[in-house]
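Standup notes
- HV: blocked on the assembly model, inputs below
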Amino acid sequence: MNFPKQITICEVGPRDGLQNEKKLLTTEEKIELVEGILAAGVKHIEIGAFVHPKAVPPMADTEKVMQAIGKREGVEFRALITNLKGVERAIVAGVDKVKLTVSASKSHNLSNFNRTPEESVATFEECVKAATQAGLSVSGAISTTFGCPFEGSIPLEQIDTLVNAFRALGIKEISLSDTTGVANPKLVYERCSELIKRYPDVTYHLHFHNTRGMALANIIAGMEAGILHYDGSFAGLGGCPYAPGASGNIATEDIVHMLEEMNICTGIDLDKLLDVARKAQKLVEHTTDSAILRAGKSSELIANKPSGQIKKG
Amino acid sequence: MNFPKQITICEVGPRDGLQNEKKLLTTEEKIELVEGILAAGVKHIEIGAFVHPKAVPPMADTEKVMQAIGKREGVEFRALITNLKGVERAIVAGVDKVKLTVSASKSHNLSNFNRTPEESVATFEECVKAATQAGLSVSGAISTTFGCPFEGSIPLEQIDTLVNAFRALGIKEISLSDTTGVANPKLVYERCSELIKRYPDVTYHLHFHNTRGMALANIIAGMEAGILHYDGSFAGLGGCPYAPGASGNIATEDIVHMLEEMNICTGIDLDKLLDVARKAQKLVEHTTDSAILRAGKSSELIANKPSGQIKKG
């Protein structure tokens, strides 16, 4: 195994983590969380979504959060959008990047957007044009890349078609998302290796849910395939709607902890990140699935032992 | 990545899973669990421990459990022992294999056995002799292989010394145990690769705790290093005494589920294994950390969707 020296983490907690929470956080609470992430040294943040406020009430104040935070040197704020209206709001709010999302599964895309994947893609051109004209970057995301709750396994060619559709629009940064936590390390390794081989001009990002405990194993497989960008959500917020009570997004702190133990640099201060995760867990008023919030860091186990023989390692 | 076609799982739930449970299971309940594991097709079972009943009360009835189950064609029952008295009890009980355990950390071994690792090893010779004369196999286990709560990181040479001590006693099957869940995939890969290179005559087993969420990632790293034998505990029972409330042993069902999704054969019927895990969780009267018990299998998510378009994959 040949692990990379450096990995980039995008914190998606403010968007994917909070979008399905029953308890609505106040704008001030969200700002506090984002400031905490920034203080921890995170340079890529999915700050919210510009979608219909009635469809996703927790995202209704994304403008206010972004405007209160403001642009920051060296930090990229991205937001999820689904149409031109979203781009217009993103421009006003001042985010750096918009993310266009489409599902590799026809049934899943119909269920989420009431459109086929092809119909979704057809609407992207005007979004890309508007965003680019305003100086915003654009990235793409493909959900159900590793399996779909309606259709089961998703043939690679369906992913290939969408990667190409994004490339045709000039989008070269693409998130491959395991929306329902069904990815496994073999599939991740094989699918990502093949996509990198076919389209080396694309920068791939991986987005894993820890629903079946495999997210960190999938990240290992993704790194082996050569992927250097991963999403995480503070405290592991953001569950799979098809598996209530199960784990959500892989916790950012669990990724950073593993990578740090492996001497892989993320540039993130894990202790400060843990402060944010603790705060987020408190704000949503329920426990979440974060191994490090529960168990503490490996190094803490060692440092905290009441022993005279600590050689901290 | 080059994944193996087949992996052997040893179910350690009856021993490592139950040894620290506050609620004492009855002998009949334990027999029911072991029968369930056998029905699921598990061929390697750590059925209990022959240690002082006052030191580990949940293991006091290991003879009774083993005698009720009896020898089974093609199944290996192993038991943990710490001294000659243990071997004698193991012989009477009719187990197939005894496991001798020593910690790579002096402080941890002193804390557990009131002896240095060298003193532990010195007591093993008479155990091996007695077990071998009675026709029992003998395996070794090295705890704190990947880190120690007292000493922090453990130099490879301390593991090397113990592997050699076991080899000198004719023991060629050695479990490397991540007693407190501090192993990470890089360390697992590097340490295991090096040990296999140095001593290819040894069959290594890996024993992971999921305390910091890394157990499945560590198994991926172990497989990449070439290790084909892994321990698991039903329902994820058996915590880390240094991290109360954190995850315990990696759940056998979580391992089998991941491997099955990767088309790696274990010979184990996952549904029957899940029945045992559910039963175990009920018997100990507390929730445990098993991703698949909570979320269900990847294939179930797909099969259970109320949709006419299921293409089960």
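- HV (later): unblocked. The beta strands of chain A are 8-11, 44-50, 76-81, 97-103, 137-143, 173-178, 203-208, 229-232. Chain A has one domain: 8-303.
- Next: hand off to the docking folks.
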